[in-house]
Amino acid sequence: MSSGTILSGAEIIIKALRDQGVDTIFGYPGGAVLPIYDALFKQNQIKHILVRHEQAAVHAAEGYARSSGKVGVVLVTSGPGATNAVTGLVDALMDSIPIVCLTGQVPTHLIGNDAFQECDTTGITRPATKHNYLVKDVNNLARTVHEAFYVAKSGRPGPVVIDIPKDVQFADGVYRTPGESLPKSYRPQVKPDLNKVEEAVELLANAKKPIFYVGGGVINSGPVASQLLTQLVRMTGYPCTTTLMGLGAFPAHDQQWLGMLGMHGTYEANLAMHGCDLMVCVGARFDDRVTGKVSEFSPNSKKIHIDIDPSNINKNIRVDLPIVGDAAYVLEDMIRIWKARNKRADQAALKVWWDQINFWRARECLRYEKTDRVIKPQFALERLRAAIAGRDDVFISTEVGQHQMWAAQFLPFNKPNRWLTSGGLGTMGYGLPAAIGAQIANPGALCIDVAGEASIQMNIQEMSTALQYRLPVKVFILNNQWMGMVRQWQELLHGSRYSESYSEALPDFVKLADAFGGVGLRATKVSEVDDVIREMIETPRAVIVDMCVDSKENCFPMIPGGKAHNEMLLGPEDRVSEATPEEGMVLV
Amino acid sequence: MTTQDTIRRHTIAVLVDNEPGVLARVIGLFSGRGYNIESLTVAEVDSNESLSRINIVTSGTPMIIEQIKVQLDRLVPVHKVKDLTLEGPFIDREMALVKVAGTGEKRVEALRIADIFKARVVDATITSFVFEITGTGEDLDRFIDLMRQLGLVDVSRTGAVALSRGTAAF
Ligand SMILES: Cc1cc2nc3c(=O)[nH]c(=O)nc-3n(C[C@H](O)[C@H](O)[C@H](O)COP(=O)(O)OP(=O)(O)OC[C@H]3O[C@@H](n4cnc5c(N)ncnc54)[C@H](O)[C@@H]3O)c2cc1C
Ligand SMILES: Cc1ncc(C[n+]2csc(CCOP(=O)(O)OP(=O)(O)O)c2C)c(N)n1
Ligand SMILES: [Mg+2]
C-alpha cells in the first residue's frame, strides 16, 4: 500500500504503526478506541497485550522499550483510560524512555462539552510528556503518528501522547509514509563540536585523579555506546562509576568499576567523585540523589558533561566543558582523537589515585551481617546473583524502596538494557508490568521483578496478564513487612516514629500466586533460600516468591538528605551527624 | 555578589509553529519550573509558514536564563530562540491605554504630560481621557506613575514586542 491510499482513521493508525516496525502494543479497550480495536481485530501483524490497568500498560511498554531499545506503544481509551496512564507517562518522561501512547477522545464536536468519559487529555498530559498531539483531521493522522515516533526516540527520548477523537478514527483520509512526515522544527544535535572533544581529550590525558560518571544516557544511546564507553575507560585505565539508571553501561565485573554512586552508592564511588580532579559525565544529569549537597559536590574537579539535551547541562551543577551530542558519537570521537594524538594516562599519578581508591574499597561498604538466624535481604540477593551467574539473558526489574537499592548494589549488570527500574519518579508498582514488557520483548529470557511487599500490591493485578500470555515472569518479594525505605527515614530522621509504614494485613503471597494460576514459593529460613531460588528459576510459569527477610535491616551506605558525599553513613553504628540541618530535612 | 548570582532582565524572542497548545506549552514551562514572566506577547508573524513570534521578558541569574532558553528550544513546535538582550542591540516597544479621570487643573496637567510623552488621546469625556502611549516599558512606567497622581483609574498594557537592530533576520 503506497502513500496517498485512502483508509479509515483506525486503519491509518494500524498501518502507520506497522510502518514504524511495531509488533506489540500494550493496551486496554473502551468506547473511545473501539474503531482501533476493531482494526486490530482484522489484522494479525501487531500483537495486542491486554493489561489489567492502564498504568501497567505504560510500565509494560517501558519495560519492553528499555529491554529492547525499541519504542514502546500504548493504546488506552479516553477519560479514565488516559488519566490512569498519566503516572506511567511521567515515569517514562523522567527516565527518558521512548513511548508512543494513543488515547481515544470523544468525537470532535463534543470536545469541551463535558461529554461522557471526556477529559482534557492533551492539557493533563502536557507536562507529563515530551510532546503531545490532538488530531482533529484524519488527513493529519498518519503524519502525526510518524512524527510522534520520531520525537519519542530522538534527542533525549520520552513519552509522546496522540489523542484521537472517535470520529477521526471512523473518517476516511489519506495515508502518508514515515519519510514524508518529519517535524519542521525538532532536530536535536547528535554530532559533537570537535573542538570541544579535542579539549576533552586534552583534559583527560592531563588528569591526575580522573573519574567517569556514567548515566542512563549511554543506555539510551544504544549498545554501541556502552561498548565505546567500555573501550575508552579501559584505554585510559581510569575508574568508572554509574548511576542507578546507568547500571549495565559498563560491565559490573570489571575492576575499573567502582559500583553505583549517590545516596546509596558505594563509599569508593562517592569519595572518588568527591576527591577527583576531572569528572567526565557521560549521559547523566547530576540528579540530587547523586550530588547530595550541591555546594559541596566534587569541589575541586574540572567537569566535562556529555549530554544530548542541552537543558540538562548546567542545570544543577556548573560544568567546565559541556559537549552536546549523542554519547556514541562523542565517545567514538574521543577514542579516535585519543589514539590519533597518542595520548597516555599519567601512570604515576594514576597509580596513586588507584591506591587511594583501593584503600576506600577496602572498607567493603556493602558488607552486612552474615547470620543463620534470619534471611538478610542482601543475602537473598547474593544467592540470586550466584544462581544467575554467567547467564546473559537475565532481565531484572524492581519496584521502589530498599529492595530496589539492594538489587542495584548486589546484582551484576554486565550489559546494557538488562536493568529496568523507576529512577526519576520512583514509582512503586513499576516492576511487575515492566518485567512483563521485558519478557514479551525477550521470550525465553529470565525476567525477575525484585519487589517489596508493599510495592507489589500496587500493580499485583498484572499477574493475571502474565498468566494470560503464559509469561514466566518471576516476582521475587523481599518481604520485610515494612515500607522499609520509609521506615528507614523515620528511624534516621524522625525519631523512630513509624507513622503508617508497617505493612499491615498482608495477603498470603503464596496463595495469591495460586489464585492467579501461578506458582507461589516461600522461604523463611536461610537454609531454604537456595532451593526456593532454584525452583523459581526452573518453574516455566509465573512465580511469586515470598522471601521473608529481616524486617529491621536498613540500606547502607546512605548519604542523608542535604549532606555531602564525604558525610556518608556506612552502617547502623553510624548516626546522622548532628541533627540533620533543616534544609536537609525538607529534601526527599 | 558575583555575576553568577546577579539577576538580570532578558528579552527573549521565540519563533513557534502557530498551532493550538503552543502558548500553553510555553507558559506551562515557566510556571512548572518556577521561572518568572514579566511580560509575554504573541501573534502570528508569517501566515504562509504559520509561524508565530512570542516575546518574553523574564529575569533570572545567567544560569536560569540559560535554562529558560534551552528548555524553550527543546519544545517540539519551537523553531528558534533568540536572547535579544545578549545578542546585541535591540528595540523594544510596548503600548498602553491609560484612563485618567478628573477635572480642573489635574485634567489640564494630565493633558500636558501626555503631550510631553507623545501620548495620544483616543477617548475623551468631560471628566476623563484615555491615552494611548507607545514606548519602552520604562517610558510607560514613568508615564503611568505620573498619571497616578492625576486621577489614574485604569491601565491596559500590551507587554513588550522586540526586534534586534540592524539587518539580521531572526
Ligand atoms: C529510592 C531511590 C533511591 C535512589 N538512589 C539513587 C542513588 O543512590 N544513586 C543514583 O545514581 N540514583 C539513585 N536514584 C535514581 C535517581 O533518582 C535518578 O533517577 C538517577 O540518578 C538519574 O540517572 P542519570 O543521571 O543516569 O540520568 P537519566 O535519568 O538516565 O537521564 C539520562 C541523561 O542522559 C541524557 N541522554 C539521553 N540520551 C542520550 C544520548 N543518546 N546521548 C547522550 N546523553 C543522553 C539525558 O539528556 C539525561 O541527561 C534513586 C531512585 C530511587 C527511587
Ligand atoms: C506510588 C508511590 N507511592 C509512595 C512512594 C513512597 N515510597 C517510597 S519507598 C516506599 C516503601 C516501599 O515499601 P516496599 O515495597 O515494601 O519496599 P522496601 O522498602 O520495604 O524494600 C514508599 C511508600 C512511592 N515511591 N511510590
Ligand atoms: Mg517492604
Describe this structure in words.
The complex is a heterodimer of chains A (588) and B (170). Chain A is α/β, with parallel strands linked by helices and 588 residues long. Chain A folds into three domains: 6-180, Rossmann fold, CATH 3.40.50.970; 194-361, Rossmann fold; 377-548, Thiamin diphosphate (ThDP)-binding fold, Pyr/PP domains (Rossmann fold, 3-Layer(aba) Sandwich), CATH 3.40.50. Chain A is built from 22 helices and 20 strands. In chain A, the strands form four sheets. A six-stranded parallel sheet of chain A has the order 3-2-4-5-7-6. A six-stranded parallel sheet of chain A has the order 11-10-9-12-13-14, with helices on both faces. In chain A, helix 10 (223-236) packs parallel to helix 13. The radius of gyration of chain A is 24 Å and the shape is globular. Chain B is α+β, with helices and mostly antiparallel strands and 170 residues long. Chain B has two domains: 3-83, Alpha-Beta Plaits, CATH 3.30.70.260; 91-163, ACT-like. Chain A, domain 2 (Alpha-Beta Plaits, 2-Layer Sandwich). Helix content of chain B is 28%, strand content 41%. Chain B has helices spanning 22-32, 62-73, 104-116, 137-148; strands at residues 8-17, 39-46, 51-60, 78-83, 90-101, 120-125, 128-135, 152-157, 161-164. The structure holds flavin-adenine dinucleotide, thiamine diphosphate and magnesium ion (MG). Residues 399-403, 426-428, 452-455, 478, 480, 482-486 of chain A line the site of thiamine diphosphate.
